Amino acid sequence: MHDSNKLLEQANRQLASSPNTPTAAGQTNSEPPPDKDAVIDALNRMFAEFELVYHNQYNKAFSSAEKLSYAKKIWFSNLRHISPERITAATHRAIRESEFLPTVKGILKYCEPDFRELGLPDSHSAYLEACRAPQPKAEFNWSHPAVYHAGRACDWFYLAGSTEYTAYPIFKRHYEEICQRVINGETLSLPAHIALPETISKPLSPDEQRQRMQQLRDDLDI
């Protein structure tokens, strides 16, 4: 046990001495990288929580102190550009949603913003909203513009005339693609409403037309 603790302490020291990571996608050079010690603490908490939740899988994956030490280095090299808060949130999200011990790729996915954080409904709720929204669609009070754009991409007539079994998978594909654009930072908007004029003109009666014509002739002296 003493040797195992020494190996893990050595791994943490090696992680802390690792060079800064290059600028990650979505970051700019003006953004300071996360604090290394804070990232290491977040990763250590992650592994501790995974050991409790995925006990058998965890012990099988990290069957020795050497394997655990090497795993921590790999995880740190892939997650060191992510804030400790986001790593912790991803850990808790993984515990809630995954029955299996997550991989590095899985945690990177969980590090992306949750749909709910961005005000995006889940895909099935979005589908029902798109199907039930009355015409004109552009004037409906959408929960998020992504729902409108997914419905339009799917085709309103297709949604109205197709069964959920047929239409939902197609809508879901469009919706998830649009949601990914939102996660990547794109801002979606709805079509601008065309304001109605304050006064609505009506056709002139035959008598009014003759009077207008006569007035025009008098003005032009013809």
TrEMBL record:
Pfam families: Phage_lambda_P. Residues 1-37, 201-222 are annotated as: Disordered. InterPro entries: P-like (IPR009731). Signal peptide: none annotated. Residues 11-30 have a biased composition (Polar residues). Residues 205-222 have a biased composition (Basic and acidic residues). It comes from the Bacteria. This is Replicative helicase inhibitor G39P N-terminal domain-containing protein. It comes from Zhongshania borealis. The lineage of its organism: Bacteria, Pseudomonadati, Pseudomonadota, Gammaproteobacteria, Cellvibrionales.
